[in-house]
Amino acid sequence: MAEKNWLEGSMLPIAVRALACLTSAVAPSRAYADSFIPLNQLGDFAPNLVWEAVIGGVVVCAFLAAIALWIHSALRRSNRSQLRRNAFISSAMNNLNQGVVMTDAQRRVIFCNDRYLEIYGLARSDLWAGMTGYDILGLRRKRGVLGVTDDEFYEKAASSNGLITELPDGRAILVKYFVLPNGGSVATHLDVSEQRALSRQLASTKQFLETVLDNVPACVAAKNIEDGRYIFANRAYERFWGFSRDQVVGKNARELFGPKSADSIETTDRAALLAPEGQYRNEFEVEVKQARRMVESIRIVVRNESNKPQFLLIVFEDITDRQSLSMELESTKKFLELVVDNIPVALIVEQVKDGRYLLANRSAETILNRRREEATGLTAADIFNAKEAKLIIARDEAAIKKRGMITEEHPISTKDGLRLFLTRRATVLNDSGEPQYLIKTHEDVTNRRQIESRMAHMAYHDGLTDLPNRAAFLQALTQMIEACEGTDEEFAVLCVDLDGLKEVNDVFGHALGDKLLIEVAQRLQDTARGGLVARLSGDEFGLIIDGKQPDAGLALAQRLGEALAPEFQIDGRAVRAGITTGMSVFPHNGPDGASLLANAGAALFRAKQKSRGTISLYQPEMDQQIRDRRVLHQDLSKAIKNGELSLAFQPQGVARNSVAESEIIGFEALARWQHPVRGQVSPAEFIPIAEESGLIVEMGEWILREVCREAASWPKPMQVAVNLSPAQFMHGDVVGLVHSILIETGLSPGRLELEITEGVLIEDFDRGLALLRRLKALGVRISMDDFGSGYSSLSYLQAFPFDKIKIDRAFIMNLGRNPQSAAIVRAVIDLGHGLEMSIIAEGVETIDQLAFLAKEGCDGVQGYLLGKPMPIAKYADLVGRGPTMELALKTG
To answer: E strands, 605-724, where?
Structure first.
């Protein structure tokens, strides 16, 4: 059908031309025909005319016949030519790789090639004449190779992207529909299954590559070389710069980064393009979020098929932390090398396989007897003599065989002579568990062993006198008991207390006191005649004497007293010292060393209570006294915790001629203890126990806090004085305690007066002086209590500006009895006023004493004459809480 249509179309112009020729040929004949004469009229003409007419007719007929033949021949040639053209066009169209369907303006199918039929599984017999485009679409829909409506088909096929038709066998056909100017149309049908598969594969490959690049920890990007604009960036790149890839793609460095970073990037890009190998590595600095970061970059030039540079692939990594870590590692390496090189222990590393030294520090040069650089690469046989090398190699092999640590001490010859070294050998295994290195350290322990020997001696000997100490004494007691057990033998334990050592230290200083102790120790040893003498504490010595007891012990104690009676000449000074002795006897006074020593101490305590310089033998009743003292100590500890202590306040007044004239200006706070069983316990009894046991620190804190709280509540801002124990200065932060209590209670610092004895400065002069200065800086007043009872009071007045001096009661009670007391009191008053310190006298009990002190210009007085220590409620009027109370002479 298509060939027929093509043929008809080509014959039309030929027929027109043939008709025109025929008309032109017949036209002259008609002209002649108009003048043609009928036969009945031939007679009127000449014969020549007839023949001419006949001949003319023949010519005309011949001409017409020729024309007819020419027309027929031309038609045949034209038909053959058209057939050839149609066959060529049909062959060409049928051999296209895509199906083609053409319709005329009435949508009638005028051409359909074989590829179209093949694509959709149709035969040419399925087509009919006059078939329209809708018919052929319906035919396809029936065959199941079209899944859209006609309108959808034409709408989508006419779009720029065309219509993709999915066939049941999985093929994909791209249909494009074009409308011709004459109203007809052409539709092309191209099998794009392979292209779509390749497209999907390409998309999958692209997605895979992007996924891979997105998960690469390094930053990856690519840019066009022509315009420098980015075409790709992975996630690491996004994280580093803080941009999304959508922000990056299509822009250049200048549009994305700061000037400095852009300059660095562009400079690196140019260097990469000029690199002969097409790659360029470098490190440069960029600014990221206002912070400088160092990156390591590699840029690769990617060329197209014409070998011309087209893309620049960029891979870089932030090495700021790595560079910092590298520098730190290098610094650490140098540091470790420096440490290893300077440790006082010789360090040598040996290779197991050949015994060669790989490393030696500077300290090892003493062992090697050469510079460490010279020892590297040598073996023990190369360095030491044959005998030493054999011994060293044997020890090395033993350590390697053990695969652990071997430690030993042995002497080594050095340039300083024979020294004792502690050698440690440790085997280092490789990954296969085989010995690879042997690390050897050699530590010179000669001095240490000598020190340890001395320390072992010191552990059982007194450092000052070199006598055995308490531990050695107890050990000797144990040995004596073991030797005497099961026999009738006896021995005595003597505790000897050196009298007067404290006074010597106070007057002449501790250095001279130490020399006195050395001299005393020597005399004790000489007198004991080979018996054991030990120093038990600061001024206490212990002795063991065998023989008939207690006679032998008492005789030795007597001889000791006589030996120490003569003066000691120390640094040109004559110093005297005496002893007080307590004694216990084995087995009567204790079954073990601790009991014997404790009982001898109890006897010494009783001797001190009696009189200095006496000798006391242990008696069983002493245990009860000691137990009572211990119980009282325990009860005091509970009393402090349970609030059994209370405060009494004794008035302090201005020194006037009478009590009435002596205005009360303050109080001294004193501790009182009401025992639940014993009743009122004297301060003279429990204060020493608190001092000896250390309870005075806890008790002193309670007293200070309660006094400040009470004084802060008085309507009248009167002074209040509190005693501080030397123990409070030696233990804890007394300055911090006073400060915190003042803040806690709200008491004005100027109303608080802290009374101290010279014992605060005797124990540790510099520390005590520093603490007093810090206390005074708080604003409190500092008073020296019991002035004149010690030995160094004058020197302390020179060192520290006390606010007040308190004259000891021992001088006041003797006023009027001996002139020396009056002279001393008068001198103290003058001394205090000369130093601009106020003076207060304690223990004032008579009108005469008050009058004397007023006459001599004493500033203040305290004693039973003004008032006994009583609860503050008894003095309520004086502090502004009650009616005025008439003060009278108190007795008893």
So the answer is: 615-617, 645-654, 664-675, 679-681, 719-723
User: Which residues, 6 or more positions from 476, have their beta carbon under 8 angstroms from its beta carbon?
Assistant: 468, 532, 534, 544
The letter for the amino acid at 275 is: A
Tokens of 852: 């004397």
pLDDT tens sequence across 326-337: 777 777 777 777
For the chain, the average pLDDT equals 83
Amino acid at 457: H
Q: What is the pLDDT of residues 227-256, one digit of tens each?
A: 989 988 888 888 888 888 888 898 998 988
CA angle, residues 138, 139, 143, in degrees to nearest 5: 115
Is-contact 655 841, C-beta < 8 A? yes
Q: How far apart are CA 618 and CA 549, in angstroms?
A: 12
The string of pLDDT tens digits covering residues 72-92 is: 777 877 777 666 666 666 666
Express each pLDDT in 787-807 by its tens digit.
765 544 566 777 788 899 998
State pTM to two decimals.
0.40
The C-alpha atoms of residue 159 and residue 599 are separated, in whole angstroms, by: 123
Closest CA to 831 of 884, 890, 784: 784
- Which run of H or E residues covers position 400? helix 386-402
Task: Check residue 356 and give left, alpha or beta (phi > 0: left; psi -120 to 50: alpha).
Answer: beta
Write out the H or E segment, with its range, that includes residue 440: strand 435-444
- In the chain, the amino acid numbered 81 is S
Distance CA 167, CA 193 (A): 10
Res. 519 pLDDT band, cuts 50 70 90: very high
Helix 621-642 / helix 695-712 crossing angle, nearest 10 deg: 40
Q: Work out the burial of residue 634: count CB atoms within 10 Å of its CB; fewer than 13 is exposed, 13-18 middle, 19 or more buried.
A: exposed
Q: Cβ atoms within 10 A of the Cβ of 128, count?
A: 9
Phi, psi of 344 (to 5 degrees): -75, 0
Query: Pairing relation of β-strands 573-575 and 346-351?
Result: unpaired
